[in-house]
Amino acid sequence: MTMAEFWMMLPFALLLGAMAATPVFAPRWWRRHYAKVALGLGAVTAGYYLLALHDTRSLAEAAHEYVSFIALVGSLFVVSGGIHIGTKGEATPLTNVIFLLTGAVVANVLGTTGAAMLLIRPWIQMNRSRIATHHVVFFIFLVANVGGCLTPIGDPPLFLGYLQGIPFWWVAENCWPMWLLGVGLLLAIFYFVDQRNFLRTPRTTREENPAAGAWKIEGLPNLSFLAVILAAVFVEKPPFLREGLMLAAAAGSYFTTKKSVHAANQFNFHPVQEVAILFAGLFATMMPALDWLDQSSQSLLGHNPSPAIFYWGTGLLSSALDNAPTYLGFLTALHGTAGTESIHPLLAGHARHLLAISIASVFFGAATYIGNGPNFMVKAIAEQKGVPVPSFVEFILKYSLPCLLPVLAIVWLLFFRG
Fold first, then answer.
1. Is the pTM higher than 0.70?
2. What is the mean pLDDT of the chain?
3. Three-state DSSP class for residue 82
4. I want to staple 155 with a disulfide (CB 3.0 to 4.6 A). Which of 109, 148, 200, 368 is the partner?
5. Sign of the CA dihedral 129, 132, 138, 143?
6. Residue 54: partners with Cβ closer than 8 Å, 6 or more residues away
């Protein structure tokens, strides 16, 4: 690695470090200045590629992937914000399990961001009389992360893989056993924890749940806009038609949805604005790191690395950083290890490695607040509602290590150990 290559990876490291540490140790400063940090560091890297390397091709490819990514995430966010779900009465542990299972399925259609934004408020409402930290954490585990591994729409890393050429239905055909196991185990653990909480809560308190009422859904016309977005995913040519259709559907949803529905959801654009700005910086700054991984993957991983290396490597970095750039990084490393730039040889000869990267990026993204974009959104909404939310360290020590890690280890033992 040359000194220039080393220094140009520094903006990526600085941005990831800022995203991980600053919201914890200097949250007010981060809220005021995160856009300057992300876009400033991104501009440094983009300027290097443009002025020093004269590499407009890499910049154009990164820009196209970013526009596709944010068009999908943003359009799903807007459409889900136009649908309001009213809940009914006291939520029993079994009712909660069914709700979380439904959320895990819906995450594959609305994306983890859309599903989390649609369902977090009714989830809090239906558990208001006995709401606890485990309700927020397991919602993040199942709806905002693990549930969304069956389609490229489900979680940002998988959509980036789709943009790289991985067939749409490859994900569902290969990931469903891990999805079934991961969701099933997490629901079983949640039921045990929630049942104890339910029995400890006085019956009179549970019966005074202010969420009492009838189940109802408002904003159903937005399902037609959702259908447009899903259909647009399969549009490949001409360039940017797919993204244009998605954004048009989002605009149609926003302007036709009743104001009362948006008000009931407390809808605003701040969460998706933050994601758009942060990922603009990430997509720009990670270009040197991806180039280096592509060139150095064989020396780092060897000529025949085990799928376990990709599973734990992708997973640990996804939990400590962000799962979308981590996914791209290890996909690039796999290309380098296989000695090919085409996706088809990977599907033919390295499918298990590719599967390990896909599952790990989605599942491990649940391990911390910074592992996946929706995690912080869920945390922010819960805090707005006055719900007890675990701290960054408490999240890991009380829930990720004792509850999530055993599930991740079982998935490794059964599918990626060899």
1. yes
2. 89
3. coil
4. 148
5. positive
6. none
